[in-house]
Amino acid sequence: MLNYAILFLFYIAIFHCFLFTISCPPPNPNLYYQPVIGILSHPGDGTSGRHSNATGASFIHASYVKFVEAAGARVVPLIYNEPEEKILKVSEKASN
C-alpha cells in the first residue's frame, strides 16, 4: 500500500512539472480577432430627440452600438464635426 502511495505522489510531481513547463505563447497584440466598425455620430444632444447642430454636441444611438457589438465587433465612434483628416485616420484603422 505504501508503494502505491509513493508511486501516486511521484506521478503527481511529474504531472506538475510537466504542467508548469509547457505554456502557450503569449498572444500577439498586433493581431485583432474582432472586426472594428466605425459608427458616425449624429448632431444634437440625444436627450431632446431633436437633431440640432446648435450645441455642437453629437450622439450615437445605443442600439447601433449594441447591434454591432452583438455581432462580435468592436465599435469606434466617428464624430461628425471632427476634422476630415482625423476621421480618415480613425476610419483607416477600422475594418469597415
Any overview of this molecule?
This protein is an alpha+beta fold and 96 residues long. It has a domain of 58 residues. 41% of the residues lie in helices and 15% in strands. The protein contains 3 helices and 4 strands; from the N terminus they run H-E-E-E-H-E-H. The strands form 2 sheets. Strands 1-4 form a two-stranded parallel ribbon. The model has no long low-confidence stretch (mean pLDDT 78).
Element-by-element helix/strand order? HEEEHEH
Given the structure, what is the number of helices?
3
Helix content bin: 40-55%
Tell me, rounded to a whole number, the average pLDDT: 78
What's the alpha carbon Rg, rounded to whole Å? 26 Å
Strand order of the largest sheet: 1-4
